[in-house]
Structures are given as C-alpha cells and as structure tokens.
Amino acid sequence: MSEKEIAWDLSEIFSGCDDPKISVTMNALLEDADEIIKKYKGTIDSPNFSSLDLLELLEKEEKILADVEEIKVFSDNMFYANMTLLKTKTLDNKIKDFHSTISKKLAFLEIEIGKLIYKYPSLIEDETLNNYNNYLLIIKRKFPFKLSESEEKLILEKDQYGTNAWQQLKESWLSSRKFKVTVEGKEKIVSLSESNSLRWHPNRETRISATKSVFSSIEKEIEIYASALRNISGDWVKITNHRGYKNPIHHSLIRNDTSQVIINNLMKIIEENVSIYQRFLKIKAKLLNLPKLGGIDTWAYLPYKKKYTWNEAKRLLLQIYDSIDKSFGDIIRDLFNKNYIDASTREGKLGAGYCFPWYNGKSAFILLSFKGLLIDICTLAHEFGHGVHYYLSSKEQTFLNYMPGPTIDEIGGTFGELLMFDQLRKTNESTDEKIILLTNQLTAGGGGIFFASACMWFEQSLYDAIEKGEYLDGNTISKYWCAARDRIFEDFVDWFDEMKVNWVVIPHFYFPNDRFYNYPYVYAQLFVYALYQTYKQKGKEFVPKFKKFLSAGGSLSPEELGKIVGMNITEPDFWQFGMNQFKEFVDELEKLIN
Ligand SMILES: [Zn+2]
To answer: What spacing in Å lies between the alpha carbon of 384 and ligand 1's midpoint?
Structure first.
C-alpha cells in the first residue's frame, strides 16, 4: 500500500457535509414531489390519460428520482468512508429521513400507474412509451396484488411494530452478544461481526473455537431467534394469501422478473449436480489433510501468501479489462482518473466493499479497504465489474431503466472476479498457487450455487410447516435447517451439533418483505458461468454482445438479455451449461492434485 491516501473526491456533487446546497436541493425536490401530487394524484386512472401524459409523468418522476439518488450517493459515500464522524452521521440521518419522506410522497405513482396499465394494457405497446416497456410490464405484473390505499397504509404502519420490529429485535439482540474465542492461541472477547471472519479463519483451531463459541451461545437463547423467524414467516404466509399470491415464493418471482418454471429448472439442475460439489468437498478435505471435511472448513479459504501493492493491483485490473476490449479498460482508467475510488484502510470505515452507481454522473463510486491480500484483489475486480456495468447502463438508459434487476445485478461483478481469477492463474507459475486459486474459486462459487440452494429449500420448508399448522420452535426450525443442508452435503461433511442453529446468523431469513432472498444468488452464479464459458469459446466475437447486455441495464427482462448473448434461459439445459463450468473447475483441480 502506498503511503498516499487513496480517498475519493465527491466534490462534483457537494463541497462537504455542510454545503448549503444540500438543503436547497432537498427542499426543491420536496416541492417538485408536491407539484406531482397536486397535478396527478387521483387523475391517472382515467381513459383520458394518454400515452403522452404517461410519458411526461415518467420523465418528471425520473428527474426527481435521479436527483434524490445523487444526494444519497453523496451522503452514503461520506458516511461509509467515515462512519464515526458526527458530521457524516448527522447527514446520513437527515438524508435517510428525507428519502423516506419523498418515497412516501411518490408511492401513489406505482399504484395509480399500475391500475391504469392493468385496465388499458395496450398503452404498454404504444410507440411513445417504448423506452419504459419492461418497467411498465413489471408494474402491471405487481398490480393485481396491491390492496386499497388505506389497507396498504395500514400494513406499512403495522409492519413498523410487527415484522420490522421482530427483525430489529433479532438483529440488535444478536449484535449485542459477546463471544469468547481463542484466536491463534490467544483468548479474545468478540462481537458477532468480528466472529464472522474468525469462523472462516485460515487457522483451523481458531475456526473451531469461533464456531463452537458463537453457536453454543446462540443455542442457549434459541427461542428468541425462533420467535422472530416464526412470526416474520407466519406474517408472510398470511399477507401473501390475503394479497392473492399463489404461494409464498410468487412475490419474489415478480420482484426478480422471472417465472416458476425457470426457477424449477434451475433447482432441478442443482439436485442433479450435487455430486460434483461433493466431489470438490472430498478434494478439499484431502488438501486440508482431513479424513472428512468439517462444517467449519466448507467456507474457509486456503491461505495465499503473496501480497500486492496498490499499483500492482491497479495494473492487474487494467490488464484484465483491456484484455476484453480497450473500451472496458478506458472505463477503469476514467474511474481512476476522476478519483471515484476510496481504497485506504481507515478507522470507522465500512468493512465490506461496494460499488455505488451514480446516474447523473453516468458513472459509479467504489469503496473497499485494500490491504494487498488475494481477497482484496478479487473484491477490487468484483466492484469494478459492477462499475463497468453501471457506467455503461447509465449512459444508455434513462433512470427508471438503468439499474439491472436483482438477478442480473451481480453479473458484472462476478464476471470481473472470474477475469481476475484467470489472470492470476496465468501469472502464477507454481502448482500450489494454482491449487489455492482454484480451491478458493470453487469455495466461493460452490457457496453461491449449492449452499444458497439449501437456504432456499430451508425457507420453503418453513412455509410448508406453517401451512400444515406446525409450531416452529427452535428445535423444529433447526431440524428443517439440517434437513435442507443435508440435501446438499449428505455425509460428505461433519457438522458440530451446535451448527444446527446456523440459520440464526443468516440475515436474509429475517428480511420482512424480501422473502426468498437466496435463489437469485444461484441464478446469477450459473448465469455468469454460462457467460464466461461463452466468452472463452467465442472470444472477441462475444464482446460487443456482452457490452450490449450490460448497457441494457434493467430495460429488458433477463430472458431478453439472454437473447442478446445468444442464450435461451428458459431452456432447462441453460443452467446445466452454467454448471458445466463449475464441473470443469473441479476436474481441473482434481488433475492438479493428482
Ligand atoms: Zn456485488
């Protein structure tokens, strides 16, 4: 790491947390939102509301939303780079309030536009609204499950003290716990967030100590965590029935712009290929000199000694993106030249990395804490992959269309990681290094594909139990957890008994209105593997298509995006095509160790 601080420059947006322009902009936006309410509320659902009227409204909405996003870009980035400063905390709070106020003001738009296009679906096909085709289709799909305005308001208010409060109770209780862990021989008292990395520590004894300490302590209080999960899941079953969804997963299919058939195809491929993952687990046990892999080893990376300087990392990054196409490399250079990267480690900075899109700037900001480790190099490639995606889509699309949907959003980042992985494999001559790189790639990819599938099965089994009238106490939930987990791991892994409460530390199960958060990971990982394989087979011919795919952002459905790169994602074989890449990596690893 060079001594010079690598901090981003946000002054193109505002000069600082105390810039008076922030309040002026916020007030102007609130006035603009009030104007929209005055002009449109209660008037949209009418046969006289023409396609031109709708176009004008959507353009006005986009202008407000893009400016609101820009304020958030500034305040979030200021906050996450320095979370302990009073001025960044104050601004963050203020902007969160502002964001919730303006979102509530504009919430009627989706309901009223939904009602309009549900009644007059031919509007969607109207030439004038071409740009918003996919956006309107999603709104139309959501509409039949909306309740009246007063019911929706009531649900929001009840959620605040109901499901949201259960989630909050669980999260704040869990994060207040302290655990005694022996870290490389020394005893330490750690919080849950500190214990997370210790559970996958390169030192096996540390992993054992952290895992046993965290899960045995959770087990003693299991009924608190079970109550929260039982109530959040039970509420979901009631509310989705009330809204008329076919089943608990239906809502997520609309959110993810996908269908039950596609998800069934996807999960079938997982079941059919579980043995490939199990083959990898056996190899990993051998690499760790164990007769059988432990649950504590499934996610652990093999230690990699080599370290990188910031300049080396930058060079690698430019190399991989230039190798696809110079225009990709130019995007990376532009992000560096404009100082949109915050890479220094500093106290009070967010631990994880992220890429924040910035529509008005037609660009993105990247945050990570670079220490020169392999994991940092991979994070860097991942976040810049997102950066390239947002950079291209914000240039080509308007605000409502530029963000890729949830199943597509991880594609840019994961593709970037695979490119980096390729580059590192090429430049590292030794077999040992190659083995470590491959094992770590399969550990991450296997988690995204197989472990996330077990998470989905587990969640489904909770709803099935609720429908059968079963009472979900801690033991019952743990029983379902182990059953779902064992469908993947069978007897290839030994789990400590305490690990049956693993479901408690996975935050996704507690998201009140974003249920079934896990299968999009499976979807995205196999989709990326399919794209990556196509890139390897077709080379340069693939690049303009891939660029078009990324530039489309969220303006097309995943199915249409697939067509751009010559893939039919509705065919069951499509997911197998992605899975073949995973298998190829396992075969390669097997050859290297033999
Ligand atoms: Zn990502």
So the answer is: 9
